[in-house]
Specification:
With 360 residues, the protein is an all-alpha fold. It is 79% helix and 0% strand. The longest helix is centred in the C-terminal third of the chain and has 65 residues. It starts with 15 loop residues before the first helix and ends with a helix.
């Protein structure tokens, strides 16, 4: 007798990395870093963030990114969704404070709206949905490049105006800890790019371990300072509801908006997935630099939104794939019908010629 499986259904993907993040948060809640251990963890976390962005720069192919410029309308559309429409929606959510969201969670929600788009998951979902994968690759790459500069600048402008107490002095930290390592990685890519490609799997573990360290440090600081007492389960449910509405608005807007702009179906799929998603890998390190001790609550909305977008986009991608397969099947059936009709006409013509010859 087969034992019942405890795995989630295929249409409801629970990212294993999200489970690791949840485990890291639980560890920080049970054993938060204190005293000299906290100091060492913060220093290591700072180095890990710099290493992360150095690897991002070294692995990003500038040639491939530039080659995708011919789809400039598509890329501008994705950038507008990521760095214009998302922030405007975040600012509009200011009216939910303090009735629905407390100020700390609203700050995290607003930061979520400033983060660049994803690369890997946008590519995966676009491929599954039979969209323009090359466009998704370039759109994600452009968003990552622009985000290194645009996200801190928007945070300095928007978070300060939103009363979040954001200091523009954090821009210097961003430059030293994020931008300089990224540029250094780009400059050294010529010599180390091959090595990084050959050891891509190992370096993937380095990336994820670094982010887990950032999360542990941020949430440990929050536990020590008691910031988690500011959030009740009801507030978290409200946050999930707000994020569900945000994701629904962006998915609907990118889908119908790209259709109104005249994009082909494959391009619309790439815009829908790249323009409605936010990068956890880029957002977590940025939050640790921008918010410091307050990063724990600031990254919580981003972590929840990340898992939500994976679940929803997986379902949407499969629907796109089914509709695309049905459209291809209908087109092939129509072609087959036309071919049979043409063959029948040719047969009738030949029969007529033969009959005519016989009568003569």
């Amino acid at each position: 007798m087969r034992r019942p499986s405890l795995r989630p259904p295929s249409w409801l993907p629970v990212d294993g990395y999200i489970l690791a993040l949840v485990g890291t948060i639980a560890l920080a809640a049970a054993l938060p870093a204190r005293g000299p251990v906290a100091t060492a963890a913060e220093g290591t976390s700072t180095g890990a963030v710099a290493l992360l962005f150095f690897l991002y720069g070294a692995r990003l192919s500038t040639h491939e990114a530039l080659a995708g410029l011919r789809h400039w309308r598509l890329h501008l559309t994705v950038l507008a969704c990521t760095f214009v429409i998302f922030p405007l929606l975040g600012l509009a959510a200011r009216g939910l404070v303090p009735y629905v969201l407390p100020p700390a969670l609203y700050t995290g929600l607003l930061f979520l709206c400033l983060v660049p788009s994803t690369v890997q998951s946008s590519i995966a979902f676009t491929s599954l949905a039979r969209g323009n994968v090359a466009a998704a690759i370039c759109a994600g790459s452009f968003s990552s490049i622009v985000g290194i500069v645009a996200t801190p600048l928007l945070a300095a402008l928007v978070l300060r105006s939103g009363g979040a107490g954001f200091s523009a002095g954090a821009l210097l930290s961003i430059g030293c800890q994020l931008l300089l390592p990224f540029v250094a990685g780009q400059l050294l890519r010529r010599w180390i790019g091959g090595f990084l490609t050959r050891h891509k799997k190992v370096l993937g573990y380095v990336d994820r371990s670094s982010i887990l360290l950032v999360v542990y440090t941020a949430f440990s600081t929050g536990m020590v300072q008691g910031i988690w007492h500011q959030v009740s389960p009801l507030r978290l449910l409200c946050l999930l509801g707000v994020e569900a509405v945000l994701l629904a608005v962006m998915l609907t807007g990118t889908s119908f908006g790209s259709k109104k702009l005249g994009f082909a179906r494959e391009d619309r799929i790439a815009i829908t997935f790249a323009g409605s998603k936010k990068s956890l890998a880029a957002g977590l390190p940025m939050a640790s630099v921008l918010f410091g001790a307050q990063a724990g609550l600031a990254v919580l909305p981003l972590m929840l939104f990340h898992q939500m977008q994976l679940m929803v986009c997986a379902v949407l991608a499969k629907r796109y794939a089914r509709s695309g397969a049905e459209a291809v099947g209908e087109a092939e059936a129509a072609q087959g019908t036309d071919a049979r009709a043409t063959a029948g006409e040719q047969t009738e013509t030949k029969a007529g010629v033969v009959m005519g010859g016989a009568r003569r």
